[in-house]
Amino acid sequence: MTAEGEPREELFRLVRSLKERLRVDGELGRPLTYLVREKAVAATNEGGESAQDLRESPVAKKSGLDGVREMLGDCRRCPLHRTRHSLVFGEGNPEADLVFVGEAPGADEDAQGRPFVGRAGQLLTKIIVAMGFKREEVYICNILKCRPPGNRNPQPEEIAPCEPFLIRQLEAIRPRVICALGTFAAHTLLKSEAPISVLRGRFHSYQGIPLMPTYHPAYLLRNPGAKKQVWEDVQMIMKTLGNGT
Ligand code: SF4
For residue 198, which of 83, 174, 234, 236 sits 20 to 30 Å off, Cα-Cα? Predict the structure, then answer.
């Protein structure tokens, strides 16, 4: 690519990302406060519907997790739909006190259509049980609902269209505590770029809900020494929820 082409490509990427954000926010009925011109609010999405049309659609008015899942549909809002086998929405108690948010499905999750079912998921289940919960008592989901090929890192243009659905899931569940597993979950939810090693170990606030960032279970499989810090983090969650210690 030429030096001249790079800014042009970046501009196209930003426009694509904004269009997608408009479309999804319209579907979810979220206020488009980041737009300043009335004309821009009425921008159409790729399907030719205006954001206003989508906001007023009957599906957008459905509440609860089922409504969010229905709005997501057979999502093709980012390129990950081309390589996924399953869309992994999330699972667990729709009225959970505690929600775990990870990064994205891996190979096992993509194959089964369920979050955190591989080796890292088995470790997460052990952590949940050690906290005094059954797995089905909490809710588990990811920032991205589809697997990035080769488990590469999520890209901004994938997070942008997918994040509004996570926001809506959290609005529907309204948990007492959120646990962000790993860098991408913490960065996306907290809009921070600080290292997870700096963010973990204390509560932050997400829409008024205490949010504890901690290491991702996949990181723990590679770095078992970090289990001590994760245990410290989850003990703070347990204390807040009145579970044990
Ligand atoms: S990752 Fe999210 S936005 Fe992309 S296709 Fe899957 S559900 Fe849609």
Answer: 174
Question: Which atom number of ligand 1 is nearest to the Cα of residue 84?
Answer: 6
8 Å CB contact between 112 and 86: yes
**Residue 168 in this model has a pLDDT that exceeds 80:** yes
pTM of the model: 0.79
C-alpha distances in angstroms, 72 versus 33, 103, 145, 169, 230?
22, 18, 10, 11, 32
CA of 136 to the centre of ligand 1 (A): 24
Could you identify the residue written with the tokens 């990064």? 103
H/E segment holding residue 9? helix 5-28
Contact indicator for 115, 88 with CB cutoff of 8 Å: yes
Q: Does ligand 1 have an atom closer than 6 angstroms to the CB of 143?
A: no
Phi, psi of 42 (to 5 degrees): -85, 10
Q: Is 20 in the pocket of ligand 1 (CB under 6 A)?
A: no
The continuous run of DSSP H or E covering 158 comes out as helix 156-173
Taking the CA atoms of residue 116, residue 121, residue 127 and residue 132 in that order, the dihedral angle to the nearest 10 degrees is 50
